[in-house]
Amino acid sequence: MPIDPSQVKVLRADEIIRAREDTRAWWKRLYLPAIAMGLGVTIRNMVRNLLNPGGLPTIRYPEERRDYGHRFRGRHYLKKRPSGEPRCVACMMCATACPADCIYIVAGEHPDPAIEKYPVRFDIDGLRCIMCGYCVDACPEDAIAMTKEYEWASYEREDFIWDKEYLLSWRDEKVVDDGYQPYEGEIDKSRMSRGTL
Amino acid sequence: MTDWTGIGISLLKAFLVFFGVVNVVPILVWAERRGSAFIQHRLGPNRVNIAGITLFGLVQPLADVVKFIWKEDYVPSHANRAFYVLAPVMLLIPAAMTFAVIPFADDLVIAGRTIKMQVADLNVGILYVFALTSLAVYGIVLAGWSSNNKYSLLGAIRSSAQMISYELALGLSVVGILMIYASVQLDDIVRGQGELLFGILPKWGVVTQPVAFFLFLAAIFAESNRLPFDLPEAENELVVGYHTEYSAMKFAIFFMAEYMAMVTGAMLIVTLFFGGWQIPWVESAELKATVGEIPAFLLQLGAFSAKVLFFLWLFIWVRWTLPRFRYDQLMRLGWKAILPLALANLFVTGIVLYFT
């Protein structure tokens, strides 16, 4: 739309506020009132925190812990059959789904023809794992799930390779809540086609 | 005849004052860390303990000292070794010598002997202080240059420019005080501040020279390289400036020198502007007559310490409140604001003194 020249307002020189011009009052330009106000803010916060240190957001870690949600994806564990064997059938679904390629499975033939296969080896490399939980989602047997365990620091790299026996039994020694678990509800198949389960 | 008792007392005073100031440093570090933590809604160091005793984190400095002593004392291969080793010493010695002229209580009369509560009552007084604080810049420049590191060198250059700019303002802002109390001896200045102005206000430097106080405060912050004037360190631009390459005890010495400069600065502010050991509205002679010699001494020492501690806290408090200046802002403030104001203040003081 063309601009009507009669509507254009021409600014006089004294009406133009230049960006670099300091229009504050002289006593504000001394910065002293602002500094005093800033000092007031810091001392107020400090006195409040000194009087009530319990109100600080800090979690005093070894004694206090954050309560993580029930979907927390901590260290994995393998579920067992009533007989004590792993529920895993060595189908390689988890190893295939794993984006970090951290699951190593060697399959063996199971004497029970209804089970067919079982894992001879089932190793997870804790240093490669990105804790995405895709293995839990991929598992057709609900054999792998996650916990709220996140304290596994060690000085040895070997300690981060969790083998089958360890994944089956580590929760016997340490009491940890369940974390991310396989989905148990009805699957809405109308959403599956969109790939957004 | 040699006055052995006098020499003994002088040595004892020197030792006690040095010991006192050196021991303020770890407490300051603690106050800085805990204070900043509480200002920023954190807890700060509170874990280190001896048999479960943490003393609100005061054991932390002990652990720091052990760490400083046992860390590898590394000298980079590209550094100029002699100057590299010399630099921290060059910085520490002036910092440790400055408070020799600061009086911390009224003269003590014991068994007919008058003991000056000051390590050395030099007749050049404040000039000695300025002479020594200017020497500190050599330590910094030497450290920056001998490290052979661009960040160290930039920090050192900034530091020398900053020190030269603010030393002028520092000196000029004090001249008004010297004119009013008609002495450069710090003891005389403190005694002059014991009187009352108009019968109600203590004749402290901050009352007689309020403008000079603010200028001096800004300049002393700049001289001790503390925020908002910590451009020589400026960790987001220069790593940590002139002491980037230093580790272990050499770094600890830089650290100590910085904090000792803070102590000196706080002591100077108190001595020049807040009546030193004077307790407001209480005459020193009267106090001694009422409560006795030793309690009066302790009270004055307490008053001096309380004032100094307040200003040390101000150093820390300001550090966690104000952001750092940009370099051109720093220079503009020094040369175009503080210096003319100091000169104007001097002029007005001169006129007022001439007509009264």
Give me some keywords for this one.
heterodimer, A: 197 residues, alpha+beta, Alpha-Beta Plaits, three-stranded antiparallel sheet, two-stranded antiparallel sheet, 5 strands, 24% helix, elongated, B: 356 residues, mainly alpha, two-stranded antiparallel ribbon, 13 helices, 4 strands
Please provide a written account of the structure.
The complex is a heterodimer of chains A (197) and B (356). In chain A, 24% of the residues lie in helices and 12% in strands. Chain A is built from 6 helices and 5 strands. In chain A, the strands form 2 sheets. A 3-stranded antiparallel beta sheet of chain A has the order 2-3-5. Chain A has a two-stranded antiparallel sheet with strand order 1-4. Chain B is mainly alpha-helical and 356 residues long. Chain B has one domain. Chain B contains 13 helices and 4 strands.
What secondary-structure arrangement, pairings included, does this model have?
The complex is a heterodimer of chains A (197) and B (356).
Chain A: H1 26-29, H2 32-51, E1 76-78, H3 93-97, E2 103-109, E3 117-125, H4 134-138, E4 144-146, E5 161-162, H5 164-173, H6 189-192
Antiparallel strand pairs in A: 1-4, 2-3, 3-5
Chain B: H1 4-39, H2 60-70, H3 81-97, E1 108-110, E2 113-115, H4 126-146, H5 150-181, H6 186-192, E3 196-197, E4 201-202, H7 205-208, H8 210-223, H9 235-238, H10 248-273, H11 284-291, H12 293-319, H13 327-355
Antiparallel strand pairs in B: 1-2, 3-4
Helix pairs in contact in B: 1-10, 1-12, 2-10, 3-4, 3-10, 4-5, 5-8, 5-13, 8-10, 8-13, 10-12, 11-12
Q: How many beta-strand elements of chain A?
A: 5
Low-pLDDT regions of chain A: none
In one word, what is the shape of chain A?
Answer: elongated
- Rounded mean pLDDT of chain A is 85
**Secondary-structure element pattern of chain B, one letter each:** HHHEEHHHEEHHHHHHH
Structural class of chain B: mainly alpha
Classify the beta-strand content of chain A into a percent band. Answer: 5-15%
Any idea what the CATH architecture of the domain at 76-187 in chain A is? 2-Layer Sandwich
What is the distance, rounded to the nearest whole angstrom, between the alpha carbons of the first and last residues of chain A?
51 Å
Helix content of chain B: 55-70%
* Helix-and-strand structural type of chain A: alpha+beta
Report Rg of chain A. 31 Å
CATH topology of the domain at 76-187 in chain A: Alpha-Beta Plaits
| Spatial strand order of the main sheet of chain B | 1-2
